[in-house]
Structure prediction request, 309 residues.
Amino acid sequence: MKQKHCILIGAPVDCGKRRRGCLMGPDAYRTAGIAEAISALGYTVEDIGNLAPADVTVADAPNPLVYKLAENVGWTQTLMAAAIAAAPRGMPVFMGGDHALAAGTVAGMAAHAANEGRPFFALWLDAHSDIHTPETTDSGNLHGTPVGYVTGRSGFDAYPPLPAKVATRNICMIGLRSVDAAEHAVLDDGDVMLVDMRRIDEEGISAPLQTFLDRVAAENGMLHVSLDVDFLDPSVAPAVGTTVPGGATVREGHLVMEMLSDSNLVTSLDLVELNPFLDDRGKTANLMVDLTASLMGRRVFDRPTRSNS
Prediction:
C-alpha cells in the first residue's frame, strides 16, 4: 500500500437487514487485534472510534418492504462524509457493520478519487452482487442495494445525491454464487466484471483478479475493496447471517489479499457483515483480521499460529 497511515473507522451499521448483530462487528475487530496487526507491518494506526448515523427524515419508500430507510440514509450521509474527510490523510478501513454501509463508503471514496482527478475502481468480494434498488428488492433489506446506489440506478431519491457516480465497467465482483433474477437482468446487460465460483473453479482466482488489477494500474486508478464475510465459505467464516455454501477458501482469500498488496493499488477497505453473535470463539473475526494483514503486507508464511484453546 502506498499510504502508510491507516485510519480505522467503526461503522456499526445494523439496519441493512433484519437479523441483528452486525453492530458488534467493529469492536470484534478491535478485540481480534486489528490495530496491532496493522501496526506490526509498519503502519501508523489511528482509530477514530464508532460513528453514528445522521438524524434524517425521509418519506416512506414506495416499496412497503423496505426496512429502516431513514437510518440507512443517515448512515450513508455519515459514512460518505467520513470517507471524504479521512481519505486525504491515509488509508481508511471501514469496520462494519452490514453491507449497507458501502453506499456511503464507496460514494465517499469515489468523490475523493474525483477530487484527485483519478478514475475510481471497486472490487466486490461477496457471494451477492448487491445491485438491487429500494424499488427492486424483494426482501426490503438495503444491504443488497449499495452497488445499485453508487452506480446511479434509479429509486434512491431519499439518499444523498451522488458526488461522483461509479462506472459499472470499473467494478469487479469476485465470489458470486447467489444472484437473483432482478439482479441478473441488470448484470447480464451491463459491463461489470463478474467472477462467479464456477469460473474460479475452472480458472483459479488469480487470473481474473490480475486482469482487473492490470486495468486499474493502466488507468492510474484508485481501488476500493469491499470484503464481505460471505465471500468466504461458511465452514471457515461462520459469523454471517447470509451464509451461502461453496465460498472462497482461506487460501484463496489470502491469495487475493496478497495480490492486492503486491499491486499497491488499494486506497480503502470495507470489512462487512461480521456478526459476532454467530461466531465460533472469534474464528471469523480473527480470519478477517488475518486477511486484512495480508492486504497490508503480511505473507502467508509469516502468519502466526493460533491456539485452539
The first strand starts at residue 5 and ends at 11.
